[in-house]
């Protein structure tokens, strides 16, 4: 004679899978017609309902992602035109007031361009269209180019910026490397106060490349460490008027995860932040 546990045993693998978010398994409906069969059928109906709801949510999410991708593409061209026009105008003789306003326009436009690029990258990742293409990359060329881009922001704040990296070629996806460096350095430059320090270190430890960005910024409160890589996160001790989308670190971690890398950090209010990224070399 079968015990209750015997009759419920076939359910266990299905319920175990469901408990960790896998609702793909079907319930083995018994041929007998008793109260246990009703339990089996009820659970199967519940699983099918959950699957339908998940499919519907995915469809809505995909429509949202597609829309963001299209909108970002449409915004990129006019924003680039505004930035290009601002750079042309800046070459003409301007009054101090005109230069100040033009600087605001240029800075705000670049902020919007960065936001658009982040949205495009996120939509590609979520739609499975972000293709990784490892290439031979010259570290010196990449870091010199990036450093020159940040000089206009570093110089007025008298920030001490230093680097330490091997001048050797590495095999890695250049888009991944640039995104990681761009976003980590951008945060450091943005939030490090005048007279502060930023240090970029890169180490090659096959089969990985290790990127460390250290700054003397305001740091991140311990109570918010678990939120750092979430969408739209901004630390509570940051000036709310400071420009930023809150997508940089979320995008960085998402790309790193897809590239099978790791990112971690240590931070204390008033003592700056250290981000460490480990990426596989191809």
Automatic annotation (TrEMBL):
Any one GO molecular function term: phosphorelay sensor kinase activity
GO CC terms in record: membrane
Localization per record: Membrane
Superkingdom of origin: Bacteria
Keyword Cytoplasm: no
Pfam families, sorted: HATPase_c, HisKA
SUPFAM superfamilies according to UniProt: ATPase domain of HSP90 chaperone/DNA topoisomerase II/histidine kinase, Homodimeric domain of signal transducing histidine kinase
InterPro entries, alphabetized: HAMP_dom, HATPase_C_sf, HATPase_dom, His_kinase_dom, HisK_dim/P_dom, HisK_dim/P_sf, Sensor_HK_Regulatory, Sig_transdc_His_kin-like_C
Keyword Cytoplasm among UniProt keywords: no
Residue span, HAMP domain: 21-55
Domain Histidine kinase: 70-282
EC number: 2.7.13.3
The reaction(s) this protein catalyses: ATP + protein L-histidine = ADP + protein N-phospho-L-histidine
Keywords (A to Z) from UniProt: Kinase, Phosphoprotein, Transferase, Two-component regulatory system
PANTHER family from the UniProt entry: HISTIDINE KINASE 1, TWO-COMPONENT HISTIDINE KINASE
Descriptive protein name: histidine kinase
Organism: Candidatus Amesbacteria bacterium RIFCSPHIGHO2_01_FULL_48_32b
């Amino acid at each position: 004679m079968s015990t209750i546990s015997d009759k419920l045993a076939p359910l266990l693998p299905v319920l175990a899978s469901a408990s960790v978010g896998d609702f793909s398994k079907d319930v083995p409906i018994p041929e007998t017609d008793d109260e246990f069969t009703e339990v089996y059928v009820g659970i199967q109906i519940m699983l099918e309902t959950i699957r339908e709801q998940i499919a519907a949510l995915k469809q809505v999410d995909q429509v949202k992602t597609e829309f963001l991708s299209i909108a970002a593409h449409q915004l990129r061209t006019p924003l680039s035109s505004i930035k290009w026009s601002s750079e042309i105008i800046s070459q003409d003789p301007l009054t101090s007031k005109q230069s100040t306003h033009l600087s605001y326009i240029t800075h705000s436009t670049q902020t919007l361009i960065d936001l658009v690029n982040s949205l495009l990258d996120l939509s590609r990742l979520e739609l499975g269209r972000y293709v990784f293409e490892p290439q031979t990359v010259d570290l010196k060329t990449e870091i010199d180019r990036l450093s020159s881009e940040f000089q206009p922001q570093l110089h007025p704040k008298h920030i001490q910026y230093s680097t330490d990296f091997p001048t050797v070629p590495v095999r890695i996806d250049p888009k991944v490397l640039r995104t990681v460096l761009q976003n980590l350095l951008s945060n450091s430059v943005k939030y490090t106060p005048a007279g502060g320090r930023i240090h970029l270190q890169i180490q090659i430890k096959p089969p990985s490349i290790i990127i460390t960005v250290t700054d003397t910024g305001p740091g991140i409160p311990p109570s918010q460490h678990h939120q750092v890589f979430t969408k739209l996160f901004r630390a509570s001790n940051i000036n709310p008027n400071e420009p930023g989308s809150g997508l940089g670190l979320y995008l960085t971690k998402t790309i790193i995860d897809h590239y099978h890398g790791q990112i971690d950090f240590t931070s204390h209010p008033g003592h700056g932040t250290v981000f460490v990224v480990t990426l596989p070399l191809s």
